[in-house]
């Protein structure tokens, strides 16, 4: 029997409300919309952690971050854990990476002085590297230099605006385009590398993991895209109150406002991102949409190649994100904290034709990033490792609703800084206390900090999370219920790879209980 092909795609920092197929009124995502129509879209899909490295570790191992414990960019990953690439390789695939996984290896294997620890951008074990795209961008920059571009240096320096661009009257400086054309962008270049790989092996079954950088910052788009969206037509950011009043809402917010710099989001930024004015915020929102459309167009090129080769119908395509982006909501930027904007992400699964799936559905049940590895392996007929905390989404893809399914999602956010210790000093708490856990169901979101005050939001009546009810006497019963639910979830999902096994007179016996 012909193997099912797998194309597993992520758009970095892509939040759930930025997809045409699910209701965004201004965003152009024709290829993703078409894919949603031929697949299954999960409307309430959440990452279990941010930022990039931990979130990718989570969906690539199928484990909650409370168990794999690679909880920050640069936190080493336990070498004893398996992952989607290793399991697919056992099944006869050659899992190939186009982009990055941001994996830091285990120092107990390599030794603490190994050069691998000069960066957090290692590759997850099990992947063949088709083309790596690390933060230094060296292969792409070499490509640009060979085409005659002046390359200022490694890393993000290339994202300074085009110095030849003349800003029209009334336009915000952040509307200036990049110095490279769309046909030479890192998005187009990476798609080309995968397309080249597909064309070199047109008849071989494949397992490709394509990880577009965009719409991750720096927020600047090529000249063909930079005027695509009018800042005036963008939805305004959500603000519960003034910046100063928000700082007083919670110590963690005060920390985030202080810690997030403008230059993490665009070149030549100065000062704190919280202080960006309204015009800058709206322009960045327009540029963010342009970067999503650019990624959509390049994904369309990959899909067109599969169709030309006659392989589209035999390919499982998963498109999702590692985490979202605050985009100025609550005066925050990046992937941070506890608000939905950072953790609610898109998920589209287009099954191969042989699965006889119920396509075109939009599923409203809660799903989590830990579900991706079990779903892929289940669909391929490959055993799901006992370490996995997630659950296969195959019943939904077949048009079935499981008899029991989760009623809430959970995520961890760890804000310690082993390098500078700034959060620890500012909040006067230990590194082990610099974390939070979220219990989020259809009615309420409860945020539990290790040593800071909790938060509670009414998600039905206050979906923008503008009023903290944790200290309201009328909601103490809700707080207690949420604490109990959070504790029960945490107890159910303690690391359990071996706990359901037992020695017996018949040898080792046991099974997965969830």
From TrEMBL:
Domain of life from the UniProt record: Bacteria
Sulfatase N-terminal domain segment(s): 5-382
Keyword Translocase attributed: no
Keyword rRNA-binding: no
Gene3D superfamilies, sorted: Alkaline Phosphatase, subunit A
Alphabetical keyword list: Hydrolase, Metal-binding
Protein name (Swiss-Prot/TrEMBL): Alkaline phosphatase family protein
Species per Swiss-Prot/TrEMBL record: Sneathiella sedimenti
């Amino acid at each position: 029997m012909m193997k099912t092909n797998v194309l597993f795609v992520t758009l970095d920092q892509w939040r759930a409300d930025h997809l045409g197929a699910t209701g965004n009124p201004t965003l152009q995502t024709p290829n993703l919309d078409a894919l949603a129509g031929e697949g299954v879209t999960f409307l309430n899909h959440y990452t279990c952690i941010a930022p990039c490295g931990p979130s990718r570790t989570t969906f690539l191992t199928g484990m909650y971050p409370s168990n794999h414990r690679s909880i920050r960019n640069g936190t080493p990953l336990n070498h004893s854990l398996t992952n989607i690439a290793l399991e697919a390789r056992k099944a006869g695939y050659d899992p190939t990476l186009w982009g990055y996984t941001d994996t830091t290896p285990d120092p107990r294997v390599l030794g603490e002085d190994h050069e691998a620890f000069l960066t957090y951008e290692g590759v997850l074990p099990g992947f063949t590297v088709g083309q790596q795209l690390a933060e230094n961008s060296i292969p792409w920059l070499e490509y640009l230099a060979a085409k005659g571009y002046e390359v200022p240096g490694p890393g993000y320096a290339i994202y300074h605006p085009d110095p030849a661009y003349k800003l029209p009257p009334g336009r915000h400086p952040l509307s200036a385009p990049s110095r490279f054309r769309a046909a030479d962008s890192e998005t187009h270049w990476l798609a080309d590398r995968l397309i080249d790989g597909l064309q070199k092996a047109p008849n071989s079954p494949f397992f490709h993991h394509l990880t577009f950088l965009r719409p991750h910052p720096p927020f600047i788009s090529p000249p063909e895209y930079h005027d695509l969206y009018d800042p005036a037509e963008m939805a305004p950011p959500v603000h519960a109150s003034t910046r100063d009043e928000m700082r007083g809402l919670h110590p963690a917010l005060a920390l985030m406002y202080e810690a997030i710099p403008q230059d993490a989001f665009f070149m030549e930024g100065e000062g704190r991102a919280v202080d960006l004015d309204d015009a800058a915020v709206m322009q960045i929102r327009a540029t963010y949409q342009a970067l999503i459309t650019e990624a959509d167009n390049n994904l369309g090129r990959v899909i067109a190649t599969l169709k030309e080769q006659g392989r589209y119908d035999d390919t499982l395509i998963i498109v999702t994100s590692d985490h979202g982006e605050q985009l100025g909501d609550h005066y925050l930027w990046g992937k941070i904290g506890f608000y939905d904007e950072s953790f609610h992400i898109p998920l589209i699964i287009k099954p191969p034709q042989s699965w006889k799936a119920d396509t075109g559905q939009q599923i409203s049940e809660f799903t989590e990033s830990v579900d991706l590895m079990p779903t892929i392996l289940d669909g391929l007929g490959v055993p799901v490792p006992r370490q996995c905390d997630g659950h296969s989404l195959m019943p939904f893809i077949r048009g079935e609703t499981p008899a029991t399914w989760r009623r809430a999602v959970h995520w961890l956010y760890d804000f310690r800084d082993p390098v500078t210790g700034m959060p620890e000093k500012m909040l006067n708490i230990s590194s082990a206390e610099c974390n939070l856990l979220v219990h989020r169901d259809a009615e309420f979101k409860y945020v539990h900090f290790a040593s800071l005050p909790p938060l509670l939001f009414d998600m039905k009546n206050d979906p923008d999370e503008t009023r903290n009810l944790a200290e309201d006497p009328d909601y103490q019963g809700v707080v207690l219920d949420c604490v109990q639910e959070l504790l029960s979830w945490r107890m159910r999902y303690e690391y359990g790879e071996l706990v359901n096994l037992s020695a017996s007179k018949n040898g080792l016996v046991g099974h997965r209980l969830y």
